Amino acid sequence: MAATLRQFEYLVTVVDTGSFTRAAELLHVTQPALSHQVRALEKAVGGPLLERLPRGVRPTPMGRAVLPHARAALADAGRVRAAARQAAGLAGGELELATVYSVGLGILPPVLRAWRAAHPGVRIRLREFAHNEELRAAMAAGQADVAVGTPPADWEGPIRELGVEEFVLVLPEGTGVTGGRVPLADLAGHDWVHYAPGNGLADLLDAACAEAGFRPRAAVRTEQTAAAPLLAAAGLGPALVPANIVPNGFDGLVRRPEPPVRRPLVAYTRTRPDALTAAFVELLSRRACLLPEHVAGLLSHDRAS
């Protein structure tokens, strides 16, 4: 016997509420009917999914394995219904978009502005994550229609390449830099503007410095990607930031690192995208600006360009 969407809905609701009684109230079914459907689902998958506790319910290991797929199936069904209501049009509806903090800050705003101008009736729901692994997991769990980040490992759905993002150094005054590219190894003795643990940019900075032969000491760790260039310009230490997050009018010292630090960016979906998602990905691929003109101007004196 195959599992049904209704059974997946019952399972997810019980887990989210932690209670058969509360889940039955929310689903407007009797508790015996709810319990029967959960048992039928457990029979279909071949094992117990929920553990009954004195004060609540929690998923078993098998339940935790099944939950992401149940949520994804429910999300897919919701998108099918939405697509049917929209009749494949672009005049209305909602697009669920997921990305990492730095991309949400540096790349998406002008894209979303252009999208809003072209499709004012479409609502955007934006989810942001600290790490690309969190982004991939959320996308796999059905929490968004499209994700924008680094290429996801072992991904079976469609992937659209957007280009290669360049990272730049923002340096405090007094570091002795006069021009050109800056070898990362020359900054080994400095305290850095670092990122909070769990932020994907913290891993990227550590990896780039390790390749240059040192481990960066943190003068400060920030949760906010946008704060990194400002803290560096204020004198706390060098920062390695995506070029596209450097604000227009920024008067700090910006240089390219040597060796270069880059990462590819893509847009990806779990299934073949519907008309709304496909239109957004197409616009994104045309409008994503990985190196803004004002940052290119700050780097124009780079002799190695």
Question: How would you explain this protein's 3D organization?
Answer:
This protein is an alpha/beta fold and 305 residues long. Helix content is 41%, strand content 22%. It has eleven helices and 13 strands. The strands form four sheets. Strands 3, 4, 5, 6, 10, 11 and 13 form a seven-stranded mixed beta sheet that branches. A two-stranded antiparallel ribbon has the order 1-2. Helix 8 links the parallel strand 8 and strand 9. The protein is elongated and about 75 Å long.
Terminal Cα separation, in Å?
63 Å
List the uncertain runs: none
Strand proportion: 15-25%
**Total number of strands:** 13
Helix fraction by DSSP (H/I, runs of at least 4):
40-55%
Alpha-carbon Rg, integer: 24 Å
What is the count of helical runs?
11
Largest sheet: 7 strands, mixed
* Alpha-beta classification: alpha/beta
Q: Strand-and-helix sequence, N→C?
A: HHHEEHEHHEHEEEEHEHEEEEHH
Layout of helices and strands:
Layout: H1 5-17, H2 20-27, H3 31-45, E1 50-53, E2 56-59, H4 61-86, E3 94-100, H5 101-106, H6 108-118, E4 123-129, H7 132-140, E5 146-149, E6 159-171, E7 182-183, E8 191-195, H8 200-211, E9 217-222, H9 227-233, E10 239-242, E11 253-255, E12 257-258, E13 262-268, H10 275-287, H11 293-298
Parallel strand pairs: 3-4, 3-5, 7-12, 8-9
Antiparallel strand pairs: 1-2, 5-13, 6-10, 6-11, 6-13
In brief, what are we looking at here?
With 305 residues, the chain is of the alpha/beta class. Helices cover 41% and strands 22% of the residues. β1 (50-53) and β2 (56-59) form a beta hairpin.
